[in-house]
Amino acid sequence: MRAAVLMAALLVGVWVNPLTGGDAHAATISILDIGDSGTTADGTTFVADPNPSQPSTGTGVFQPFVRIQATGSGGGGLQNGFNTDAKEPAINFNTKGGTWTRSVQFGELTTINGNYVLSLDANQIGCSTCAKNRITITDMQIYIGSDPNLAKPEATHTGIGGTGYTGTPFNSPFNNGPGGSSSLLGHAPVWTLDSAVNGDVSVVLQASICDSKGQCGSGHGDLGVLIPQRYLSGSPTDYFVLYTEYSGANSGFEEWRFFDTPTQIPEPTSLILVAAGLAGVGGCRRFRPRQSS
């Protein structure tokens, strides 16, 4: 079911609208229920990624490449981090060490209908319809490069405050805002959510998108992110680094995986039916530009 919904989004290219009207530098995409979606000015689509009908059996089913969890509740629930082999949570913001946090080579990812597809499993305290269950993605950045140090930046470099970073910590609404500088070991991001084109984007997510009551939880996806292929390029051996930042985090960890094999794509006839169904429920999708203060 999850793959079918995401693939329908890929097939129906006109089912979401770009950011229009209002303040171009302050917008919110709300993903609170099945069918919700929104797209940024650069064409990146965010879509509810409903759980399959089978009960969750944990992270091992989801198979993430990075997990992030704040150790405290201070700072408005702010947490951030990126995938690495160094597994140094004390240095790499709120990234969790262990088996499920690792470096990724660009050749591991594949495109589906001209998009790279990432999936987020968010875990927060609160019922599936409670505001307390929501978390907000305040920034995302992707770095791609052949520098082997990108696999273990914390362990192989020294930099600002001994953290291993040679640029500003990362561009986000919490520091230098849209258009600000950002780098990881001197590498600029190849794509960023908060940009001169997109403005300051927040993605509000109900962290238990679920199409089968009582079967939400860790090990299932909540959010699909479809990034146009034109923004990401590199050789198969280049390293792919995903940085994410959140506010409103209250418990648990946020984990990301990528769609990597054609076996996850349903049969064409099923896609056509799902795409037709989504086209018919367009009024159910929520995309609410945030008003300027």
Please give the domain count: 1
How many beta strands in the DSSP annotation? 13
Distance between the termini: 40 Å
- Report the radius of gyration as a whole number of Å: 18 Å
Structural write-up:
With 293 residues, the chain is an alpha+beta fold. The chain has one domain (2-284). The protein is 12% helix and 24% strand. The protein has 5 helices and 13 strands. The protein has helices at 2-11, 59-62, 74-77, 153-156, 268-280; strands at 26-31, 37-39, 45-48, 66-68, 79-82, 104-105, 115-121, 134-145, 191-192, 200-206, 223-228, 239-247, 254-258. Strands 1, 5, 6, 8, 9, 10 and 12 form a 7-stranded mixed sheet that branches. It has a 6-stranded antiparallel sheet with strand order 2-3-11-7-13-4, with helices on one face. Strand 2 and strand 3 form a beta hairpin. Helix 1 (2-11) packs across helix 5 (268-280). It is globular. 42% of the residues are buried. Residues 12-24, 171-180 and 261-293 have low confidence and may be disordered.
Secondary structure layout plus pairing:
Blueprint: H1 2-11, E1 26-31, E2 37-39, E3 45-48, H2 59-62, E4 66-68, H3 74-77, E5 79-82, E6 104-105, E7 115-121, E8 134-145, H4 153-156, E9 191-192, E10 200-206, E11 223-228, E12 239-247, E13 254-258, H5 268-280
Parallel strand pairs: 1-10
Antiparallel strand pairs: 2-3, 3-11, 4-13, 5-12, 6-12, 7-11, 7-13, 8-9, 8-10, 8-12
Helix pairs in contact: 1-5
What attributes characterize this protein structure?
293 residues; alpha+beta
Offer a quick outline of the entry.
By secondary structure, the chain is α+β, with helices and mostly antiparallel strands.
